[in-house]
Amino acid sequence: MTNSRIAFFADVHSNLEALEACLDHARQQGAEKFVFLGDLVGYNANPNEVLERVMQLISLGQAVAIRGNHDTACFENYKDKMNPIAHLAIEWTISKLSNEHIDFLTNLPLILHEEDRCYVHASAYQPEAWHYVTDGLSAWRSAESSEKIYTFSGHVHEQALYYQSSVGKLICFTPHPGDAVPTGRHRRWVAIAGSVGQPRDNNPKANYLLFDAENECTYFHRVTYNHVLTADKIMSAGLPEDLSKRLLKGL
Amino acid sequence: MFSLFQSASPYSIDIEAVDDIFQTGKIVDGFRIGNEVHQGGMATLKEAFADHEEEPILLKIPRVGKDQPVENLICFETELTILRSLNSPYVPRFIKGGNLAKTPYIAMSIIPGVALEKILIEKKQLSIEQTITIALNLLKALQNLHAQEVIHLDLKPDNVLIDDNNEVYLIDFGLAHHSRFPDLLAEEMRKGIGSAPYISPEQIVGVREDSRSDIFAFGVIVYEMLSGKLPFDNPQTLSGLKKRFWAQAKPLRSIRTDVPPWLQEIVLRCLEPFAKDRYQSATHIRQLLREPSTIKLTERAERLTPLSFWENMNRWFRVAGYEPSPILRSEIIYEQAPLMVAAIDVSGENEPMFERMQRAASNIMKVFPEGRISCIGIITSSPTFEGEREIDSASGQFRRHLVRLKDWAKPLNMSEEHISYHVFEATDPASKIVEFAKDNDAAVILLGASRFVPNRVVPWRSVMTKVVEEAQCSVHIVRI
Q: How confident is the model at residue A1 (pLDDT cuts 50, 70, 90)?
């Protein structure tokens, strides 16, 4: 990977409008390489379109993708591991996907290592167990297992940057959208990209992360997209109304 | 399992001796290294020259290596991040930063000034007049810093440079805090990093996000400029440092008789152990210092003798367990305790507007109980050609305007602390209003709308338009 700007998209969750808006934004920011941090499907109404888009980017050599828990739920029984609404959306998703799509999801890796970076959906510590990274300790476990300078992940829908303090432990920092946060290679970092397709911080804007490898800095972006359209599609598809409502408010 | 966390240092780097990299005469990143200017505990300063440039710049190089503490590098990284992001005429201009892992340096402009520390060593103490000038300029620099969400946290005469015009520049951001970047010094192994005489009580217990910590250090510096002494000495132990949790500084007036009570009030209030008891912002102190008559004097102003042993014991018991005040960030001060500039037409020609503006101001202040108002009246110094006005002496006119302003503000029932009155003479009222608002970091300007008078160019109309266009804060236009 020679380009210095990499965009990270986590928890797209079949939200085509948010994905396209984030892709456009990232391209304008000079990103030429895209990393999908899992949970491509679930919750929203465009699983086929989102998967087609991601598969296209991968075939062009512009993107890599890893697998999340919702993706796994498309071919393994996750009924007891998900809340009822999430699982309802997964059952609906499975009914829409082709065999080719299921194969694609099945063959996605759980974790990827590239140069000094690690990509994983939840935590690099037991990736298949989908541990949430919500505090310094869980971030530390993830960084410890990834053995890389940078660990990029999603699963948690809010953006966060964990950095190594002078005593070695990891401290959580809440980034401000659009700022260039210096993230030098001499220190270790766990960056949570935030959710593209289902923001949950009372702000409906989509989240994504842009990493500038050359200048060693990280941007946490928020992007406006037509979330009303996405919410309408959920209703038309006959998915639970709650999933539509939460998109409008970012819940 | 292989672990990168085994060493205490967060830095997975191994820099060869920086002294070799930055030897005089060598070229690093296009900079020709010149002579050493200063050798500090944490960093070395060297003169350097960019390509084809005659004017030297400054390189700050951290002291790193096996025998050096890791703090040197953390502070260096902190300063690199913050100086790069700052946009201020009161700090060195950031030129370039070297790669931290290979050639760590910060290239910055040279400030044409001497350290206040040096001036204080030479002169012992400064005149009241010079102290106030420097204090005002120091507040201007602090105000600028706090507005950019930066807290210096290591203000001391060593880090305050003064030029020939008494302008102030702040240097050394190694301990500073920027709320937009990860705080690398958070949860530092040693709590309360800073300089013993100047560090605020809350910093001693590890608080790093309160801009009022800089207000405390400001108080110590002004105390030192006036008296040549340190209010809480230079303790070398933690228990010595903790004395400032409860102790009262010796009154300035007991050291120096020409210190006016209002100046003692300002300094001692900055030195209050609890941040909530100090002035809440640099811009407020600056405004008070420029208008001493508006300062609310308390028992602090009257103190002439230090506390007795028993009074001290009493305070010590009362503040036995120090709990810092809830944190107030500078950007929150700006929102929760805003300054409103009310531009009042004091001509007396438009009574309904006069009253409407009173009500508007009163309503706004209900939302912001901590807000402040600066009432300004403008004497347009352009000669009037109407020829009918009573010819008043300039000072008489000034007084009359001031009285009108106070009349206007009376129904607002503001405490003296929260309101100030200013009459200016200006040919261009709009520019004066905008300039005043900018200078004092006002959040909003309150202004009466122009009256529509057919076939006549009304001066207030152009004032309104110009203020709306040029103001850097919100503008609230009052209409009848």
A: very low
The alpha-carbon gap from B297 to the nearest alpha carbon of chain A, in Å, equals 41
**Is A186 in Cβ contact with B13 (below 8 Å)?**
yes
Fold: same for B18-108 and B338-478:
no
Distance between CA atoms of residues B314 and B320, nearest Å: 10
The CATH number of domain B338-478 is 3.40.50.1100: no
Q: How many Cβ pairs within 8 Å bridge chains A and B?
A: 74
pLDDT of residue B332: 65
Assigned architecture for domain B18-108: 2-Layer Sandwich (3.30)
Specify the pLDDT at position B338. Answer: 85
Q: Where are the domains of chain B?
A: 18-108, 114-332, 338-478
Question: Could you tell me which residues are beta bridge partners of residue A172?
Answer: A162
Q: What is the per-residue pLDDT for B320? A: 65
Alpha helices in B305-344 (DSSP H): 309-318, 330-336
The terminus-to-terminus CA distance of chain A in angstroms comes to: 36
We find that the CATH architecture of domain B114-332 is Orthogonal Bundle (1.10)
Least confident residue range of A71-85, B1-15, B157-171, B234-248? B1-15
Tokens in use for A130? 């989908």
What span, in angstroms and rounded, lies between the C-alpha atoms of B233 and A241?
Answer: 67
pLDDT of B5 over the 50 cut: no
Nearest CA in chain A to B70: A166
C-alpha to C-alpha distance for A238 and B76, rounded to whole angstroms: 57
| CATH number assigned to the domain covering A5-249 | 3.60.21.10
Contacts of B61 (CB under 8 A, 6+ apart): B18, B22, B43, B44, B45, B46, B104, B105
Q: Which of A140, A181, A188 sits opposite B181 (nearest CB)?
A: A181
pLDDT of residue A67: 97
- B258, with CB counted inside 10 A (0-12, 13-18, 19+), is exposed
Nearest to B8 among A143, A168, A186 (CB): A168
Containing B128, the helix (H) or strand (E) segment is helix B128-147
User: Contact A237/A34 with Cβ under 8 angstroms?
Assistant: no
Tell me the pTM. 0.82
What ipTM, to 2 d.p.?
A: 0.83
List the structure tokens of B351: 């009574």
CB contact under 8 A, B187 and A181: no
Tokens encoding B261: 């009570």
Mean pLDDT of chain A: 95
- Strand extents, DSSP E, B294-403: 339-343, 372-380
β B372-380/A170-173 pair status: unpaired
A34: β partners: A7, A63
pLDDT number for residue B357: 92
Q: Where are the beta strands (DSSP E) in B408-459?
A: 419-426, 444-448
